[in-house]
Design a protein that fits this description.
Keywords: Glycoprotein, Golgi apparatus, Hydrolase, Membrane, Signal, Signal-anchor, Transmembrane, Transmembrane helix. With about 475 residues, the protein is of the alpha/beta class. The chain has 16 helices and 10 strands. β8 and β9 form a beta hairpin. It is globular and about 70 Å long. The protein binds 2-acetamido-2-deoxy-beta-D-glucopyranose (2 copies).
Length: about 475
Amino acid sequence: MDILTALLLLVHLIPVSTAKNEVSSKSRKRIMPDPVTEPPVMDPVYEARLYCNIPSVAERSMEGHAPHHFKLVSVHVFIRHGDRYPLYAIPKTKRLEIDCTLVANRKPYHPKLEAFVSHMAKGSGASFESPLHSLPLYPSHLLCEMGELTQTGVVQHLQNGQLLRDIYLKKHKLLPTDWSADHLYLETTGKSRTLQSGLALLYGFLPDFDWKKVYFRHQPSALFCSGNCYCPMRNQYLEKEQRRQYLLRLKNSQLERTYGEMAKIVDIPTKQLRAANPIDSMLCHFCHNISFPCTGNGCIAMEHFKVIKTHQIEDERERREKKLYLGYALLGAHPILNQTISRMQRAVEGRKEEIFALYSAHDVTLSPILSALGLAEARFPRFAARLIFELWQDREKPSEHSVRILYNGVDVTFHTSFCQEHRKHSHKPMCPLENLVHFVKKDMFAALGSSGTNYYEACHKEGF
Ligand SMILES: *[C@@H]1O[C@H](CO)[C@@H](O)[C@H](O)[C@H]1NC(C)=O
Ligand SMILES: *[C@@H]1O[C@H](CO)[C@@H](O)[C@H](O)[C@H]1NC(C)=O
């Protein structure tokens, strides 16, 4: 990413004071420009471009930055799948034509693209938990199917994988050269786009990996809550959040007018157009530089796009303020965070298993984790977004372990609610593992304002 992007990302990472501790104005100044003199940028086209995440040349990232006496113990990577074909079509318009085959003479390109395809062709069902084995291992349709990963999506994750390879394998030697299946933990939802994104990242990370050493587990829930998904309070927060969303939309007359105009163009009732979630398809037009569709009644235009995208950004802003989503996020993210700290604690005990964990997931997976960690100001997960937890050991004090949290290559460790305070008392460039553990085991539930002190209680009692 370029420096401007990095700075803007930071502007959007102002820590939220969900917990009791307000961030002092002093610590605020260090991490971001003054919000009074520099209003947050709100350019819907600029935001949309970030969301597309079109692969460019050198990306700067802060993964793996640590003083010499720190040893990398384990890495936990959460990704959103890469660029995909829309999940919805705009009714009564010509089907958007995007080619989902992988070819060298099309942009964006990655030098490992052909090798990736031929390696995938050698894969066998034995590497995948049912029902993943029935999914194609790379996109291949001349006319993309709904939700199919595109070449852009594959290249995004080949790049992610290669970047992580350079840092974690070449520089920090996370895995021994004779790594085995036990060193990895791989999990994906049952969509072809998440499986293929995970494979592309893994291929960039471990080129020409031995198929016998790779096993992808299937995760039925987008929250990765396997075995602990039943949580009535979480659903209550979600319903209230959806109600908030609905009321905000009703208040936006410009948005209603825009949907009305677009509905007229495609000649269907406004309600039906809105239900078809046109922004999903419009974003795909935008990311692929394909003009918006036209009919005999006119064309869907950039102005329509800007209005809907602007509303999305405003919706995210109100979502942060109203905290209903936070309640949903804390309960939704608990099981996967709990699993992650368990995996870290096993690594602390010296076990060499599952020291590289990869979860290939969706925006609805990353978004609650970000909010739960107190990173609500972080941008909505773009295509091929990555959220990484690094676990480190201080060689000078081997009993001390620390974590770093990175979002799209930016170090956000001290923006998390469990480590905002720590920075003031310590010069260490990372956060004690205990802070994260304490947060997941206890403080998450305190932040809910419920009387529950564990997941089960919090899922069954009223909170804020
Ligand atoms: C987008 O498409 C237009 C023409 O349709 C072309 O002039 C422009 O260069 C394209 N932009 C990019 C970034 O490919
Ligand atoms: C949290 O992790 C512990 C240890 O792995 C496990 O026993 C417990 O069931 C988990 N709880 C939840 C709610 O995920």
